[in-house]
Design goal:
The protein is of the alpha+beta class. The chain is built from eleven helices and ten strands. The strands form three sheets. It has a four-stranded antiparallel β-sheet. A hairpin with a 5-residue loop joins β4 and β5. The protein is globular and about 50 Å long.
Amino acid sequence: MASGNYLIDGLDTATSDALRAILKPCRITAGEVLIDQGERIETIHFPTTAYLVNRISNGRGQTLQVTFVGREGVSGLAPFLADAPCSWSVVGQGDGDGFSGSAQAVRQLAQEMPSLLHRLLQLSHFYQAEAHQLALAATYESITARLASWLLTAFDAAGRNEIKVTQDEIAHHLGVQRTSVVSSYSELFRMGAVKLMRGRVTLTNEGSLRRASCGSYELIQSMGRDLGVLPREDEQAA
């Protein structure tokens, strides 16, 4: 039976079974801090219906929420692989389920099973490339295009067409003023792409939202599918 996490389900049967044997189901809530910035990783999480956000602080009270972790992957992957302190915090963004396990036990299993290590390294490479593409978009793309891309990524991470998020939170994610988010939301609403109501955003037309998004979203998705760390579009539809 599929776990609901694409990393786990994309492994060969023997490796997937071995990994699932050292994990346990868990519930993740919005706002729950799973990893603190500067902390060594004791427990890692594989979301299924929950989704997480990577948040970084500059030590002066300023924070930025950078990338999502959803059903495609695992929390704190690069520092987990390096057995090093995490340079960012990992926080629950949307309530849901997943699996958790001892970082030490999963690291040991990866050393024993090369297919698991290879999969984790591929995903780490994907996360790095994603962060670089988002930095490029933040410099050159419009706020509306970035918002559209952010929403598409959030819907992907959540695995559903509705997410719980406020305009203030999105402004924080994008590093812009709330008034800019309101204006961009109005533009996307007029296009029929999304509907916003009481701290929730609903996807109403994916095609319109994709057309409004910046090119980084499609590049990231294409690369993830080529690496095998994201499901193909026909698999997502299934």
